[in-house]
Known about the structure:
Largest sheet: 8 strands, parallel
Structural class: alpha/beta
CATH class of the largest domain: Alpha Beta
Helix content: 10-25%
Strand content: 15-25%
CATH topology of the largest domain: TIM Barrel
CATH superfamily of the largest domain: Glycosidases
Radius of gyration: 22 Å
Order of helices and strands: HEHHEHHEHEHEHHEHEHEHEEEEEEE
Amino acid sequence: MSPIHTHAQLSIRNIRRLLIIAFGCLALALSLGAGEAGASHGQATFFEDTSELLNPATRSKALGALEHLGVKALRVELYWHSVAPAADSSRRPSFDATDPNSYSWGGYDWVLSEAARLKWQVLLTVTSPVPKWATAGHKDLVTRPNDTQFREFMTAVGRRYGSEASLFAIWNEPNHPAFLLPQFNRRNQPESPRIYRGLFQAGYEGLKAAGIAKPKLLMGETAPFGYDKVNVRHEGRRALLHDVSPLAFLRGALCLNTHYRKSGTCGMLPAYGYAHHAYTTGQGPSYRPPADDVTIGVLSRLSSALDRAARAHAIRAHIPIYLTEYGVQSKPSILGVSLAKQAEFDALSEKIAWANGRVAGFSQYLLRDDPLSSGPPGSSVHGGYIGFQTGLVEHNGKRKPLYYGFPVPLVVSKQRGGYSLWGLVRPATGVTKVKVLVKAKHAKRYSTLKIVTTDSHGYWSLRSSRPGASWRVSWRSPAGVAYNGPPIKAM
Length: 491
């Protein structure tokens, strides 16, 4: 029996987990970083927990929780294998692949129709696993997906969801071997960028064939870490399972060399924006990975690379960046931080994205934690799997401090002569007032520091010279719902 089944048999989260297990992969992920000047002040905040929203047993409760938290946009991963006919067969069935009625869309219809009802934006990321009949060799679900088959599938996707999805994206983490193979070739060079370029072009053509004149299609969806090249002689076939670093992947997909000079045989790729998963390590905002890796602390590397690519006429100028998957891991994951630190780091990460004028979207990954694995974490080569502990609630449903902090994130930064405070009232729909509280060292209770007025997007900032050991915010919605954030310490 294939390890990947339809939605009637297996949840989306399990599909993703089994892909990772099958290829010995771990999306090493976590924490925060530092942005560049020019705050966006209006970035869309996406939320992703496709598994909870596709499961009939959990979807209504999950949607209600997201409404309470102030979510107004969703990222949904659409797995080609999950909706295609005879997906586990090596022989392609006879059917019109451009006809939406040829597919079993399952819970996707419910999710997108509910988002439309709520007037929420939807980013629909179309990705692997792939029907076995649509891959090279017809032996697995991720190796060299067929461009022609994918173009036809994207035509069906566009016809089905073109009026409900605000944005489309091609492939989840195509620089990671759990989702696309091969990553490298036997010449030690990245191979996945070339495969991805064909898929992106096919996807764009498919959306146009569906009647979408100017598809808003994001490229990338890249994982943050990887290698520029490998050594097949030293590692053998294992070398081909390394991730490709995101900037090496970007250059390869855009036909650019290491100096960002474009091959004359390649035209401009019609990307509306660039999507990236800016996870970092538990070291926090000070962590600076190798030069072609991109964590949230070094977002300027990505914006600089996109600018250089635009000057080479590989993409249009000034395309926006969408951080389409992000989260801070909490303990008991060995990759995690304390529950209190998770809330602090998550807010700081969002502030960093907000402060970067290039960022148009920021996404929280998971409402509910994955179950913990009994095995050790591992890289793509060393194997192993560990679930993501980036959720707002634990796997058993217990709420974390982040659950209370997410709707009213708060960052307190030490500055000469006092503190700088920044926050957001996410459920607000316009200008509102929020109470900022402070607790002095050795004090038993919080006292009001100030009642501040937000901007029209719900953001606010404050300078204070008043000493404090911890801070929190309190806001009451027009409907009378109270939101009380967790204690936050100065960083």
